[in-house]
Amino acid sequence: xxxxxxxxxxxxxxxxxxxxxxxxxxxxxxxxxxxxxxxxxxxxxxxxxxxxxxxxxxxxxxxxxxxxxxxxxxxxxxxxxxxxxxxxxxxxxxxxxxxxxxxxxxxxxxxxxxxxxxxxxxxxxxxxxxxxxxxxxxxxxxxxxxxxxxxxxxxx
Length: 156
Fold this sequence. Notes:
- Helices cover about 55% and strands about 10% of the residues.
- By secondary structure, it is α/β, with parallel strands linked by helices.
- It has a five-stranded parallel beta sheet.
- α1 packs across α2.
- The longest helix has 17 residues, at about 70-85.
C-alpha cells in the first residue's frame, strides 16, 4: 500500500503549528484571526486521513517569519517547528525547484510559494488551503485538494 501525502499551504501550516502549541492562541495571532480552536480540530481531522504532511521551503520561510507574533510564544513555536521537522515521521519538506516554479503560468499571479503547491498538486498530492486562487489551481490538477475556507465556514 502506498503512502498517502497531503500538503498544507502556509496559512494552514501556521494554523497547525500554533494549534499544536496552544489552540486557544489561534485567534489571537494576526494572521489567524478568522480561525478558532474548532478550525484547528477540523484541520487535524482532515490531516489524520493521510500518512504524511508535506510543506515546501517557501512555506517554512513564511511560517518561521510569522510565528514571532507574540514574544511569549515565539521561542516555543520555533522549538515546536524544529521538533516537527527533525523528528516527526508525519511531516516532510518537499522540494520544488525554483526553475520549475517560474515555468508554471500561475507563478505570475500566485508567486513562488503558492506556485510550489500547484506543482505538488500536479504530482497528485492534495493541497489544503484557504486561498481561493491557490485552491482553483490546485484542484484543477488534484481534485482531492481542499478549500478549507469553505469547509470551515460550513462546519461552523
